[in-house]
Amino acid sequence: MDLGIRGKRALVTAASKGLGRGCAEALADAGVDLVINARGAEALEATAEALRAKGVQVTTVAGDITEAGTRAKVLEAAGAVDILVTNAGGPPPGTWTDWSRDDFIRALDANMLTPIALMQALVPAMTDRGWGRVVNITSQSVKAPIPVLGLSNAARTGLTGFVAGTSRQVAKHGVTINNMLPGIHDTDRAIALDTGVSKAEGIDMARARAQREATIPAQRYGTPAEFGAMCAFLCSVHAGFVVGQNILLDGGATVATI
Ligand code: NAP
Q1: Are 47 and 40 in contact (CB under 8 A)?
Q2: Which of 42, 112, 178, 198 has its CA 20 to 30 A from that of 237?
Q3: DSSP H or E run through 167
Q4: Rounded to an integer, what distance in angstroms lies between the CA atom of residue 29 and that of residue 229?
Q5: What is the pTM of this model?
Q6: Mutate to test the pocket of ligand 1, among 47, 189, 194, 221 (most ligand atoms within 8 A of CB)
Q7: Could you count the other beta carbons within 10 Å of the beta carbon of residue 80?
Q8: How far is ligand 1, taken at its centre, from the CA of residue 62, in Å?
Q9: 12, 48 in Cβ contact below 8 A?
């Protein structure tokens, strides 16, 4: 399917690895020029090279997207992008009694206030031009809380509420804002989560993974490529009537009728 976005420009944050990279790859396959960001410059440059090999222009800005200074540099490089994909690392697992105010502030900064700041900076120009696409990478934990990821549950639900209202305000200008909710996907984040289970339960990594896979109706982890394909579709000309939705990609793990 021709996604109809060849020649458009996108900003994808936290995009050197994992799901952010999956989105950048799928957008590059659709002919979208990219500005990508991550903290580690080496992996970011390697990803940029791989994306350029697909025939698109790629600009890199290394730095922590949750910091205002990095965001300013990223936004300067982005200019008037047509597409924004927001992403950042997820908060660490833990116990609800242990989280301090600072822990919550860090989680809110990364997974709520940073995507909101990026939307506030970039969506007005999209509405002026009459076309734009925003996809926020959130989590399955928005729909069904994961108790050890309470910081994520809290921060991402706040973002979801913001998007629910704002997406309805900008839709008349041809701008859509939607969220993608990953269940477990085969990335470094999954390795980190499995390492936590492996240590806590005294089992090896293969067992930790097999245990988790057994809880998923699809009986496997998702892939960044599958995730990216959905992201590119939501950014395509065909998805203009998809507004304020929360698209769950979890292999059926969240048991709900709708
Ligand atoms: P990942 O494989 O660990 O990749 C994270 C990417 O984001 C890397 O490129 C990393 O590069 C970059 N990054 C992290 N923090 C950043 C920051 N503050 N500023 C700029 N770049 C940053 O993670 P993932 O699995 O793709 O997960 C992406 C998001 O989806 C996370 O928020 C995660 O919690 C959420 N999620 C993932 C899963 C899953 O199963 N994978 C499930 C539910 C939710 P640097 O480290 O070099 O910055």
Answers
A1: no
A2: 112
A3: helix 150-170
A4: 10
A5: 0.98
A6: 189
A7: 12
A8: 14
A9: no
